[in-house]
Amino acid sequence: MLITSVEITPIAVQDPPLLNSEGVHQTHALRSVIQVRTDEGLTGLGETYGDDQMLVWLRAVARKLPGTDPFATNLLMATVTEVMEELAGDSANEVPVGAGYPMAGAASSKTKAAVFSAFEVACLDIQGKALGRPLHDLLGGKVRDAVPYSAYLFYKWAEHPDAPYPADSWGEALTPDAMVAQARRMVETYGFTSLKLKGGVLRPGIEIDTVLALHDAFPDYPIRIDPNAAWTVDVAVEVGQRLEGALEYLEDPVGGTPAMAEVARKVSMPLATNMCVTAFEDIPEAVREGAPQVILSDHHFWGGMRQSQVLDGLCQTFGLSLSMHSNTHLGISLAAMTHFGAVSRSLAYSCDTHTPWQTEEIIVPGTLGFENGAVRVPDGPGLGVELDEDAVARLHEQWVKCGVRTRDDVTPMKAVHPEWTGETPRFTSL
Ligand SMILES: O=C([O-])[C@@H](O)[C@@H](O)[C@H](O)[C@@H](O)C(=O)[O-]
Ligand SMILES: [Mg+2]
């Protein structure tokens, strides 16, 4: 079986005004849909970031794939490496990459891992379809039947000042009470049994009160807070100490492994990250420093499903735990996340997902869903999801019209607060 063509479709989905330490989500979030077709009539699906820079990289690799074997993912890695190194010397190919992603220039190992991942997932989808086996079987078989996700809570505005569509149904959430209401709705709708609060938005004292209010309202629920490095070490230590007994882990309170280790020595809960350990080359320092103790996997930037399994193995070797990070994503990504969650042996926590914040979808309804806060692991061939081609066409049209081309949470915040810089750490006291 050989690959005959690869289609990369940029799409834009409506995104609510969710707040984080960098600023606010744009009116639209960008994704790329990858369709790899073969001479046996099979199509493999992938989904990843949709920034202009990512599209340049994806298209350059896509051009090289016709004529290659979808089972040859080692060869795919060699092709990605070669293409990215060629692109690296050419400044026309260096568009700034969107905020929130750990990628640097074309030649960096993190970028190669992210680009490879998009195609690896699509090739694994083809392999599973060819063999009539679910993707998790290609990774050694599932160790759980359903993958638990957490309710991802965000402080938010009621609406974007400039959205070309009506406000979302969640309303404003800028107080502890409003956050408890948001959590209740998420728990009632999806059955989640753990909570993640995106912090780094309000004064740390208010965020402490928010976690305590959530803890009072959901006393048996594991809770985590993630301010994306918006705090100094002193603030992080104080928050960690005040929230003793209320947090399962503290995620990226400060930036960089040495600062994380300093905080870890003074608080009782483990520290988690998707910011200072985002590639294999970051692991030795974390092991030497003894923190962070929880690594958030993410197949989109750790180099796909099999490299995520390597990470899983390293976590076992070095006594680290695994959780899972998410960025705004749709159903192909959720399916891939769920297959990895199904085979991971170090996964010790509910995974992150932005799913509840999306009102638009690219997979046929009913193929993937939440039950008691978990997604049942798809057992159909490959990823086990079907693409809704009409939805992709509509969301591509939306991409053409919306004008958003790179993720940038700073500029829309600056439009409302001109003094905003998005720089971290932002908070030097409670
Ligand atoms: O969606 C967001 O605003 C998140 O802050 C996202 O960009 C982060 O990458 C992520 O969810 C995280 O855990 O840091
Ligand atoms: Mg995080």
UniProtKB/TrEMBL annotation:
<feature type="domain" description="Mandelate racemase/muconate lactonizing enzyme C-terminal">
    <location>
        <begin position="176"/>
        <end position="270"/>
    </location>
</feature>
<dbReference type="InterPro" id="IPR034593">
    <property type="entry name" value="DgoD-like"/>
</dbReference>
<dbReference type="InterPro" id="IPR034598">
    <property type="entry name" value="GlucD-like"/>
</dbReference>
<dbReference type="InterPro" id="IPR013342">
    <property type="entry name" value="Mandelate_racemase_C"/>
</dbReference>
<keyword id="KW-0479">Metal-binding</keyword>
<dbReference type="InterPro" id="IPR029065">
    <property type="entry name" value="Enolase_C-like"/>
</dbReference>
<dbReference type="Pfam" id="PF02746">
    <property type="entry name" value="MR_MLE_N"/>
</dbReference>
<dbReference type="GO" id="GO:0046872">
    <property type="term" value="F:metal ion binding"/>
</dbReference>
<dbReference type="InterPro" id="IPR029017">
    <property type="entry name" value="Enolase-like_N"/>
</dbReference>
<dbReference type="GO" id="GO:0008872">
    <property type="term" value="F:glucarate dehydratase activity"/>
</dbReference>
<comment type="similarity">
    <text>Belongs to the mandelate racemase/muconate lactonizing enzyme family. GlucD subfamily.</text>
</comment>
<protein>
    <recommendedName>
        <fullName>glucarate dehydratase</fullName>
        <ecNumber>4.2.1.40</ecNumber>
    </recommendedName>
</protein>
<feature type="active site" description="Proton acceptor">
    <location>
        <position position="325"/>
    </location>
</feature>
<dbReference type="InterPro" id="IPR013341">
    <property type="entry name" value="Mandelate_racemase_N_dom"/>
</dbReference>
<keyword id="KW-0456">Lyase</keyword>
<feature type="active site" description="Proton acceptor">
    <location>
        <position position="198"/>
    </location>
</feature>
<dbReference type="Pfam" id="PF13378">
    <property type="entry name" value="MR_MLE_C"/>
</dbReference>
<comment type="pathway">
    <text>Carbohydrate acid metabolism; D-glucarate degradation; 2,5-dioxopentanoate from D-glucarate: step 1/2.</text>
</comment>
<dbReference type="InterPro" id="IPR036849">
    <property type="entry name" value="Enolase-like_C_sf"/>
</dbReference>
<keyword id="KW-0460">Magnesium</keyword>
